[in-house]
Amino acid sequence: MDENTAETLALAAGLHKAWANHRDDVLAALATQQAQRGRLPRTRNPADEPAPAWSLPKPEPKA
Hints:
The chain is mainly α. The protein has helices spanning 3-12, 16-21, 23-37.
């Protein structure tokens, strides 16, 4: 992964301070994630996921 992509991912995840102060650690964590990504089993069945998918709450109807 190139450094521009890593920076974009880190900043999108809210890791501004970590990127500024511990860039090598963030890059190492991203490299580990990339290496392990293909080894993790994935399922197409949503019931098998450990947590429900995130969604925005529905707005309350106005009276």
